[in-house]
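User: I would dearly like some help making sense of a protein record. This is the protein in question:
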Amino acid sequence: MEKDNEEIISEIKRIKKLAEKEIVCVQVDVERIINEDLKNEEQIEHTLDRLLNLILLGFGDKEFHKLNNFYSISNPQNAESYKIFYEEMFEEKY
């Protein structure tokens, strides 16, 4: 039983390290999308999806809001869907 717990803790630490690396990459993507005023919906939504996954691990909340607010300028309907999904997923107001 103790060994199982150690394995679980080790795996959680490994996943957290991967998430820490991933958030750096996603932060760069968010800044580039916003600074270059990119409007590629597929790219924006892919980045928002990556951020939702990272939020589950404790990273990316600020970046998600920042990018979704940017997205709301070019596509308010889809940005609203992401807002609703965020609220349902995390049971808190956007």
Summary: The chain has a mean pLDDT of 94. Residues 2-90 form one domain. Residues 2-35 form the longest helix (34 residues). The chain has one domain: 2-90.
